[in-house]
Design brief:
InterPro entries: DUF2797
Largest sheet: 7 strands, mixed
Bound molecules: zinc ion
Shape: globular
Strand order of the largest sheet: 1-16-5-13-14-15-12
Organism: Moheibacter sediminis
Protein name: DUF2797 domain-containing protein
Order of helices and strands: EEEEEEEHHHEEHEHHHEEEEEE
Number of domains: 2
Number of strands: 16
Radius of gyration: 19 Å
Strand content: 25-35%
Amino acid sequence: MIFEGQIRKMITENGNPIRYYLNLKDDYLDVNQQIGKKIKIFHHHNECLSCGLDKEIYRMGYCKSCFFLVPEASDTIIRPELSQAHLGIAERDLEWEIAFQLQPHIVYLAVASDVKVGVTREKQIPTRWIDQGASYATILAKTSNRYEAGMIEVALKNYVADKTSYQKMLKNEVPEIDLIHQKEFLKQYLPEEQAKFYVADETIYKMEYPVLNFPEKIKSLSLSKQKEFEGKLTGIKGQYLIFEDGTVWNVRGHEGFYVKIKL
Ligand SMILES: [Zn+2]
């Protein structure tokens, strides 16, 4: 069977284990069902997520000109503390930014490789944690908009990492960390104006990924360097497919690539 289309990030459904669907825009593939089986991936051409043209993908699925134009790729996506929609100030598209930024946001602690602090919209929980390959997570604060969450994240970055090592995450080298203890420790460093958003709740959310065995050595597949790949799928974690020979494929990192997939 052949599936084809423009890659977008995989759709996930929380469960035990998490379910993954490859999103090829007009075609969907239940990836869990392919674990233990061979699949072949072929890069056909590119299709920018915004203009749809066959141009080199620059970042986040966009060609270079769209990347510097669309609100989905603006600076505040990576740096929430720069958000200004609450002041009525536009970055690229005020209407879009009001809808995106002025909604409840979560500041969380998650462990994928080490404890990290992050920000996401409340409705992206637990999707955001799954996309990062986090094994467990807890909510540290709930704010009314993106700016407030960004200010908390910036303050806490001095004490805790804000990045994940994807290699450790994929090898499942996950330390046991007392997140509640961490959260209580970090509370003192919240900016005064945002201290009221602290969440005392002690729930730890756990994520179970469909992986038969974790690789010991990792090779990253890049379809811009290698047009074709064939391998036996052994698991899925974060936005990565893991193959028997240690090859890992970052699906999200290939948004905008148009591929054919042979099962
Ligand atoms: Zn484009």
